[in-house]
Amino acid sequence: MKISVVIPTYNREQTLKRAIDSVLAQRLQASEIIVVDDGSTDNSFSVLKEYPQVKVVSQANKGVSAARNTGIACSSNEWMAFLDSDDEWHVDKLLVQADYHKTNPQYKLSYTNEKWLRHNKEMKIPKRHIKQKNPSFLSSLKHCQIGPSTVVMHKSVIEDIGLFDEEMEVCEDYDLWLRILKSYEIPLIEDELTIKHAGREDQLSMRYWDLDRWHIRSLLKHTQERSVREMIASKCEGLKKASLKYNDTALMNECNHWLRVLEKY
Question: Around Cβ 5, how many Cβ atoms within 10 Å?
Answer without folding.
Answer: 29
